[in-house]
Amino acid sequence: MIRRPPRSTLSSSSAASDVYKRQQENSSQVECQETFIGQMLAQLRQLLNMDLNVAVVLTGLVSLLVQCPDPRVHSFMFRGGEHAPLTAAVMEVCSSVKSLMEETPESHAILDRARKALDSEEKPAQASNEELETEVAAQFRNLVVWEEFVKELLATIEMKNMLFAIQLDQD
Prior knowledge:
By secondary structure, the protein is mostly helical. The protein has helices spanning about 15-45, 50-65, 70-80, 85-105, 105-120, 125, 135-170. It is elongated and about 65 Å long.
């Protein structure tokens, strides 16, 4: 919330006016950050349907943003509980993952092959001639990327909670 200077101090040289100007500058920086972060989270929702390399870069960037110590970034990504932007994006991708697993015959076997292909840095065409070149196989490769992202996300949240608890103990 931007606090305005009292009506009696509207002169451009007053201290209250200077504070008001700084608040306006900070507000526009936060809006810009929220737009950038919001765009990244919107892209994250489409993770299963994007190129593997894009999925890897995107999840890496979102992981770095989650680790950002700036309270404004943290507040934007986590405010609102289950309706927080990051939580909503994660829930949407989890729902897509669940649907993919339920609708794909032999989904666990395909997922295991995708993991092995990515772990061994094998080219997808070498892992299985037809299967890994399909759209479903591409989604399963991205699902492996999603699994790793979620592990890192949970570890980061746990670390932030521990740091918060330590900070509370010191106060």
